[in-house]
Amino acid sequence: MTHHEDKDQPTQHAFFGPLLFGLLLAITMHAFQELSQATALPIIVRDLGGASLYGAAFSAYLLGALLSLVWAGFEIDRKGPFSPFLIGLAIFASGIVLAGLAWSMPSFIAARALQGIGGGTVSAVTFATVTRAYPEDIRPRVMAWMTTAWVVPSLIAPAVAGYIAEYYNWRWIFWGILPFMAVTAIFASPGLRAIPVGIPHGNGFDKTKDALRIAFGMGLLIWAIGIKPSFLSGIYIVSGLIIALMPLKRILPTATAERRLRLWTAIMLRFAIVFAFFGAESFMPLMLIELHNYDAFIAGLILTGATITWVTSAFAFSKWKDRFQVRVWISIGMSIVILALVMTIAVIQSLVPAWTALIAWTIGGLGMGATYTAVSVTAMANTDKGREGATGTAIGMAESLGVALIAGFGGAILNFGTRAHWLMPTTMSLIWVVCIAMAAIAIATVIIVFTEQNEPKTKG
After folding, report:
1. Residue 295 neighbours by CB distance under 10 Å
2. Section 186-215 average pLDDT
3. What is the average pLDDT score of the chain?
4. Are 161 and 40 in contact (CB under 8 A)?
5. Region 119-124 average pLDDT
6. What whole-number percentage of the chain has pLDDT above 90?
7. For the whole model, what pTM was predicted?
8. Helix (H, G, I), strand (E, B) or coil at 66
9. How many C-beta atoms lie closer than 10 Å to residue 453's C-beta?
10. Cβ within 8 Å of residue 131, ≥6 positions away
11. Which segments within 325-448 are labelled E, that is strand?
C-alpha cells in the first residue's frame, strides 16, 4: 500500500463530522450570495446605472472563478485542500465587502470578479474533498446532502434579498453573510488539514498562465458578442475563441485510457447542463420584473420551488442510481428541463398566467437535481487516484464557462434586441431558445457517447 493510500483512511470518518458541516456551510453561504444577487440585480442595476452591463455582473464572477480554479486544483493536489480553502474564503470576503461599497456598475463588476476568484477556489476544494475524503459508496449521498445546503437559502434568500433591495438597502445583501465565513473556516479547517496531498500534474505556473489565457479569451469573446455587430467584432469573437480554446486540452485532467472518454464527457455535460438551466434562471427575475411587473420579492420566490425539487431528485438518484443507467438518468432529467424551459416561454409570451413560472421552474429543478448529481458522481468515479484536484478544476471551469457564456449571450441578445427595437417578449424568448438548444445537445451527447458498451461507472 502506498503512502498516499495509507493516509486516505483516517479522513473517511469525516462524513458525519465537522468537515461535512463546514463544507455544507460554505455551500450555503455561496447559495445565499448567488440567489440574493440574482434576485436583487435588477434593483442594483437601477441604482448604479449601466443596464447594458446586466449580463457582465454574472460573467465577471465566473471569469474570476476560471482564474482561481486552475491554481486551486494544482495546489490541492500539491499541498492538500486546507490552505487553498482559507485563501479562497479570504478573497471571497474581500469581494463581498467591495460589492457592498460599489459606487458604479464597473466597480460592482470588479467586486464580483473578486468574489469569483474566491468562490472558484472554494468550489475546487469542495469537489476534491468529496472525492478524496469519502468512500465511493457514500459519495452520491454526500453529493445529495450538499444539495440540501441550497434548501434554506432558496426558501428565504430570494424573498429576504428582494425585500431588502426593494425597501431598505441592497448593500446589506452582501455584508450580511460575512460573519458566517469565520464559522465556516472554524468547522472545516480540522478536517481539511487531515486530507492527504495528491499527485500534482504539470507546472503550477504554466497552468496559471493557461487559466489567464482562457479567462482573457472568454472575456474578449463575451465582450465582443455584446457590442454592435461588425467586421471588427467578428475578429474579436474569433480571436477570443482561439485564445480560450488552445490551452483547454492542457487543463483537462489526465486519466487512464479506459476512463478518459467518460471523464471528459462528464466535464462537457456539466458545461451544457448549467448553460441550459442556470442561463435561463439568471434572467428569470429580470423577465418577471420587466414583463409582468412583479417586484423583486415575488420574483425571487419563483426560484424557490426548483431548489426543493432539485434536492428531492438528487436524493432519489443517490438511493436508486443502480436501477437505471446513467444515460437514462441524464436523458430524462434534461428532457424535463426542456419541458420547463418551454413552459417558461409560454409565460414570457403571456400565453399562460405569470405564476405558471413557479410550476415550470419547480419541474425544471426536478430534472436538474438527478442530472447534476449523476454527472458529478460519474466524474468522481472516473478520476484517477491523486488527481482529484485536477478534476475539480475541470468541473468548476466547465460550470463557470457554461454560465458565463449564456450570461454573455443573453446580455448580447438583450442589447441587440434593444438596438433592433424588438419587443421584450421576443428578446427574452430567444434567450430561452438558446438554453433549450444546449439542453438538447446534452441529451444527444449522452445518447451518442454513453452507449451500452461505454456506460460510465458510478463507482471508481
Report:
1. 16
2. 70
3. 78
4. yes
5. 80
6. 12
7. 0.70
8. helix
9. 5
10. 139, 380, 383, 388, 391, 392
11. none
Under DSSP, the state recorded for 197 is P
pLDDT > 80? residue 236: yes
Q: How confident is the model at residue 21 (pLDDT cuts 50, 70, 90)?
A: confident
Q: Measure the CA–CA gap between 341 and 328, rounded to whole angstroms.
A: 20
SS3 at position 225: helix
Residue with cell 455561496: 30
Alpha-carbon distances, residue 114 vs 29, 154, 183, 310 (angstroms)? 16, 24, 21, 28
Q: State phi, psi for 254 to the nearest 5 degrees.
A: -80, 155
How far is CA 240 from its chain centroid? 22
Q: How far apart are CA 118 and CA 95, in angstroms?
A: 8
Please give the DSSP secondary-structure letter assigned to residue 422: -
Grid cell digits, residue 432? 430561452
Q: How far apart are CA 62 and CA 68, in angstroms?
A: 10
Residue at 379: amino acid letter: A
What CATH number does the domain located at 3-201+253-449 have?
Answer: 1.20.1250.20
pLDDT digits (tens, 9 = 90+) for 36-65: 777 777 788 878 877 667 767 777 877 787
- Mean pLDDT value across residues 358-364: 92
Q: 234-260 as b/e, with b when 16 or more CB fall inside 10 Å? A: eebbeebeebbeebeeebbbebeeebe
**Residue in the structure block whose three cell numbers are 475563441:** 241
